[in-house]
Amino acid sequence: MTGISKGFLAATAALFSTVAVLAAQSLTIYCENDPPNQYVDKSGQLSGFTIDVVHEIQRRIGNDDPIRLVPWARGYEAILTTPDVVLFQMTRTAERNPMFKWVGPLMEDTFALYGRVGARFSIASLDDAKKVGTIGVYRDDVRDLFLTKAGFTNLERTTDNIANAKKLMAGHIDLFAATTSSVGDIMKAAGYSGDDVKMVLPFMKVQVYIAFSNCTPDDIVRRWQGGLDFMKKDGSFARIFKNYFPAFDLPGPAITTF
To answer: Which of 71, 137, 228, 253 can pair with 144 through a Cys bridge, CB separation 3.0 to 4.6 Å?
Structure first.
């Protein structure tokens, strides 16, 4: 009995030691401006779907590291080069899969090219889209990288996707790359309506995640994933998701092979 008690105490001490180390290890948490997922509301506070999810995960696992809003290119450079960086939302692709550690999925989405309502397009494929005058993309995000790799030479890059919406409506670009879940909010933030644009060509279906630097300790990533998994089990994730995306389906199981 004495031996068991000592073993139990040793295991318990080790567990609390591990938890204390994990709790003490700070993370640098970045997100981009991408309504309705992440944005600054009228009161100056970070709000949005992913903000609500991340805050709830943090509450459950005892993490209180602040979330900072930065341009995507800055956050992406940091997560590539700096330990213990978190960046969201990030699309999980074959190229990125081995580069980061992942918590999710948070949602499933479709990337598409959007144009002004009333504009005439004859686009049935990506090859057709290569012949368009200019396509606005968000610098260094997955849509930019995908279209660049596909051989597009007519891309016009910006560090703010809302600027793409403004340029589209002003006639400075012909199309811009966006996601089905956020294009309406991007148009609204630019001072327009989602009804002012139309989907011209869907080109990629994806899952999006919270990404961690590849050198982040696995125990930390597992704790974050566990927090999200419990949210999905108790229904709190679904409540947050449907509050922002009532017409969208909840994400399915994680796609981990490409």
So the answer is: 137
